[in-house]
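ok so dumb question maybe but i'm new to this and my supervisor (M.) told me to 'just get the structure for 3-oxo-tetronate kinase' and walked off. so i did the thing. is this what she meant?? sequence i used:
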Amino acid sequence: MNTDAPWLGVIADDFTGASDVAGTLAGAGMRVVQTFGIPDSLMQLDNVDCIVVSLKTRSVPAAEAVKESLVAARALRSRGVQQLYFKYCSTFDSTPEGNIGPVADALRKEFVPAGQVTVVAPGTPALQRTVYNGVLFAGTDLLQESSMRNHPLTPMTDSSVPRLLQAQTRNVVGHIGYSVLEAGTSAVQSRLRSLSDKGVHYAVIDTLTDRHLAVLGAAALQHPLVTGGSGLVGGLAVALGLRDTPDSRRDARPSGPAAVIAGSCSEMTNVQIDTFRQSRPCFLVDPVAAAEGRDVVGEALLFARENLADGPILIHSTTTPQEVSRAQEELGQARAAQITEDSLSAIAEGLVALGVRQLIVAGGETSGAVVRRLGITTARVGKEVSPGVPWLTTKTGPGLAILLKSGNLGTRTLFLDAWEHNR
Ligand SMILES: Nc1ncnc2c1ncn2[C@@H]1O[C@H](COP(=O)(O)OP(=O)(O)O)[C@@H](O)[C@H]1O
Ligand SMILES: O=C(O)[C@@H](O)C(=O)COP(=O)(O)O
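this is what came out, is it supposed to look like this??
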């Protein structure tokens, strides 16, 4: 695609979710740039098909999330993007107050013609997230019975997407079942029109397969605003017919000393750390000890100095749900998260000063804290190591190959073998 203006402008509510969507678009042959924070008008973002803006708005107060998302959307529109995409988690990570509903409401109000329904499609089959009769599944588990029920910041205890969204908005939430998706694009378009005519503002869409997402992508291609997980951007790309345009994957990526920083307490991150630990050294950062005044940053960097020369190292606060509860009881949820994020981002800064040039960060909030601390504002999106997990090459801040891993994404050996994909 060679028009001057980018086709798609994505507003992602966390940094790993942004990487996920950026990797999906790059995998579909798009030229993608990922920004961390809102791009100002001077930022060079030329010759791209998609701009993915990473925000850290999933767990902040709703009013703040709305304000930032609107500014991001306006910045994207001022660069001529044809379609806006609000990317939230495939497990609909949110609280009863938001922030998915309030942000979507605000974007609708400014960018969607009155009376047009907006698509809501968290389902991302490539990540084993499917929506059936409006109910969200993570693999074979109902969302509320999956490990997401124990998330430190956004525990998910209901699986019904219409019910979750309706609690967050005064707008009317409807649903389109998978049989309509099976019937094809015209059937979906006509059902979307009929929901609009009935005064419905949001249509939660069943998505069980990539074929459903391709059908939905074709049906929603002309919508000024689309919302969902990373699956639907793949559907839009298929509908647009884009394949194999020259992309950024030939960028030379930095190599050199390698480290993992993990603040994600998700099930898969725990498994990935257990796998790494069998052959490589790990260091645990305890937020309670940090709150008591222990120099966890200094200790972690001493560990790094002693081990970096031998190969990748891992520094984590990742722990079991029981240990997270213990820290939260001691410090409060917000303070435990803040201390952890502050410690891990200071450690990341120290690691870069020690010469680390390949960095994996596990966890969306954690990635937000680390990337901000390192002063990185843009990155070119490259090879996916596994679905939703691409290497990025920083264009500002320290020259790094950086991989931002969502809590539950990636294979169990990711921390050991991702480095081979950074070539
Ligand atoms: N040991 C811990 N105790 C309490 N909170 C923690 C601990 N380790 C990490 N956290 C916090 O849990 C949150 C994990 O969220 P995030 O980084 O987005 O991971 P994920 O991608 O798995 O959702 C972060 O705010 C992090 O600071
Ligand atoms: O949609 C997804 O599953 C991911 O892109 C995502 O947003 C995951 O968030 P974190 O688990 O908080 O990294």
